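Colleagues,

For the teaching module next term, I've prepared a clean inverse folding example: a structure given as tokens, and then the sequence designed for it. I'd like students to try predicting residues themselves before seeing the answer, so please don't circulate the second half yet.
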């Protein structure tokens, strides 16, 4: 909870244009998995389709996602991240990484690896309760593993 609060505060302090949490999560999923329907997104997050519909409508209004024909030839239109959505997502990811790097800046590389191992176990256990697998397979969610940044030895402040 504290880590989440730390990142939320960093968002507000640094850039009022930072993505809302729901936008960040949806764009991350679209970025890693490719175009998805609202139903697929709802299933992926365990949310009601009306909730995801409202959240994706905001992404569409802001130009962060766009509707496209199903690349697999299906009937349903899918949502795809736009270049602007990708740019904003990459910026937010970098801020999140730098915030986490500041949190663990005085940790040893071994301690950071231990944190990573425990977070992987936590995610696997949480997903198992819902009958899902974590880390997800390529088909489920390419590249979704958690990799906290390893602190680099540096005398520069803030690193």
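(Answer key — instructors only)
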């Amino acid at each position: 909870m504290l880590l989440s609060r730390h990142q939320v505060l960093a968002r507000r302090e640094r850039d009022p244009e930072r993505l809302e949490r729901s936008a960040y999560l949806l764009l991350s999923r679209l970025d890693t998995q490719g175009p998805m329907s609202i139903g697929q997104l709802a299933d992926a997050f365990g949310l009601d389709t009306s909730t995801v519909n409202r959240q994706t409508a905001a992404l569409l209004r802001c130009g962060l996602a766009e509707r496209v024909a199903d690349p697999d030839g299906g009937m349903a239109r899918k949502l795809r991240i736009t270049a602007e959505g990708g740019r904003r997502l990459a910026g937010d990811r970098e801020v999140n990484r730098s915030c986490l790097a500041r949190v663990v800046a005085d940790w040893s590389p071994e301690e950071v690896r231990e944190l990573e191992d425990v977070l992987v176990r936590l995610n696997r256990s949480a997903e198992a309760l819902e009958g899902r697998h974590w880390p997800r397979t390529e088909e489920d969610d390419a590249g979704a593993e958690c990799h906290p940044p390893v602190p680099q030895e540096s005398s520069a402040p803030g690193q």
